[in-house]
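Exercise (ungraded).
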Amino acid sequence: MPDTHNASAYNYAYLDEQTKRMIRRAILKAVAVPGYQVPFGGREMPLPYGWGTGGIQVTAAIIGRDDTLKVIDQGADDTTNAVSIRRFFARVADVDTTTRTEEATIIQTRHRVPETPLEEGQIIVFQVPIPEPLRMLEPRETETRTLHALSEYGVMQVSLYESIARHGRISKAYNYPVLVNGRYMMSPSPIPKFDNPKLDRNPALQLYGAGREKRIYAVPPYTPVKSLDFDDHPFEIEKWEQCCAFCGSKSSFLDEMIVDDDGQRLFVCSDTDYCQERQEEQRQAANQEAAK
Amino acid sequence: MLPMIRVSGLHKSFVMHAQGDLALPVLANVALSVHPGECLALVGPSGAGKSTLLRSLYGNYRPQSGSIQVRHREDWVELVAAEPRVVLDVRRHTMGFVSQFLRVIPRVGAVDVVAEPMVRLGASLEEARRKAEFLLGLLGIPERLWQLPPATFSGGEQQRVNIARSLIADYPILLLDEPTASLDQANRDGVIDLIRQRRDSGTAIVGIFHDTAVRDAIATRTHNVALPSASPGATA
Amino acid sequence: MSGPLLSARNVTKRFGSRVACRGVSFDLWPGEVLGVVGESGSGKTTLLNCLAGRMTPDDGSVTYETASAGVVDVHRLSEARRRLLARTEWGFVNQDAREGLRMGVSAGANIGERLMAIGARHYGNIRQTASDWLERVEIEADRLDDRPATYSGGMRQRLQIARNLVSEPRLVFMDEPTGGLDVSVQARLLDLLRGLVDRFHLSAVLVTHDLGVARLLTHRLMVMQGGEVVEEGLTDQVLDDPQHAYTQMLVASILPV
């Protein structure tokens, strides 16, 4: 409840109630038309554009005291930005926070989808820099709106063709365009294409917030999300020869780290929570073995 | 037997707007008919309107009034004030025109220039080219010229390409405007033979032959063309 | 097909108080190439844009007989249908090829776009079709992956033509397709257009100020002056026996070579 005696106090979750209503209305519209970019009256937030203001506004509009919030940045809970945003909400929304994917009700993320499968009832909030998937091909907003309205997505197929012509394969590795519910083309935000299949028919609600561009879009649970491709160049995710140096995973997205001046490299899970959980399981299994 | 061409009441003037709308009447009340197997020679003094009449028959010039009817696809077609596609259909299937001057299309070799009317009628390119080569040979165009665009040919060579082009499609009607004007004696005789063969096989021909010997060799009848009023210097 | 392919009735377009074109009516039949000639300011380009649905006339109508959906009023169509028509049954060749091409993607992508826009999803097939068309417009096959920015003006124009013809349109609008090109390049392009019109039984409306282009490419001609059609008819007849004062002046103005 707002503290009416102290004029400089913040409303719950930082945004005033009318703003939250406005954002929730936008979210409802977005959920009603999966993949369609809904304009919203983005507010000035206490951090600049490019640092997650869209995602923060979406989270602020939906979060409640009973929620448990997880915030990740490139898969990690412990980067500066993830820590800052998590602490921000802990303070202004008085919520529990967690690094465990299974325990979160809301997951705000920059540029990754957690490895641990999401469940019904969870909400994942994506931070989006450029919501318009066609922006690089068609700079005019008036034209891209028309293209979406008329379902004229040939230009994106052209850009994929061009990629194959130049590189022998579709070289787009992140922010890989998808078709949502067979209708709207969407930018899944700069997640690696590795994560695209996770979006397809996900039991959780996906919300996407772009602060600078002031757009919100959504993919309701169990909605088909298909990555674009050609019949003879089908969509493929990244694969590594290596496995995670810490937990041995062969099926998660790996970051490559240079560890010394000789160029030694390590491959490590990008999803820190997933990696730690696997390490914990392996430790416990090892302990049980030792105890026998 | 039905005529192939029926002309009646044909009037044509040229109005020179740049010269104060000066009107030059050239054809007045012209009437004639041409039957299959006939070669009608248009005769008259220079500038009398022979070429104007011939071009009007082809739809190239526009008469002010009157009727030009042509037997096309077993029916009569009126050409005066006809829709362009009607005239084009008549030209494609029924009527050929040979002038002294070959309008040169860049890059198209002589064989293809000749073959084109036949291809337009649906023949295959190979078949049309073969017939074109045959005709060019008949008309004495050396083989080394066949693939070349006629732009650099001599006047006589261009005229023979023109003639071959008009003969390839077996038109029931041929209009000839001085078909031998640029030819030497030997080539002239060859062309005369070809035209006579066509005439004898049923083609209806209307022609202007400046050379009386040529005219006598081909024409079966003559038609006098004279200006409506004898004004010196008038052009047809 | 029973009726004309394209019909214009009383097409009129104003810009403020200035009338750009007035009362233009004609029927275009399948297989016909209609030339519209006139000098700058004659209204011919405005007319072309009205016919092609790019501008809406203030008066009059333009109807088109579609391949499978009967006759439609071009300006009453939804924008979606009009854009679809423009991408499939119609072509539009701009005077400046850059306006009709994507300069930043390869020739193959440019030609393949119409196919991809209507759902083609096999890269190999699209590429092969694009390659075939490149050959038809006489561009070397090894330029397929080059961008039009690296092409000469004549090549760009030929590429624009290929990009339009790949969807096998029935009607092509052309705005001065040879304008601004060198004479020898023009000749080659004109010959190519002639061949393509014949081979693919195209119908076309061709705007040009060049009577030589009109003579070579068109079956019929409309002469425009000050927004109005002053003369029309068979091309060779309009050029050889011009009736109207303006047409006579135009024909007499051609410089001899």
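Further reading is listed at the end of the chapter. For now, observe: Chain C has two domains: 1-89+169-257, 99-168. The mean pLDDT of chain C is 94.
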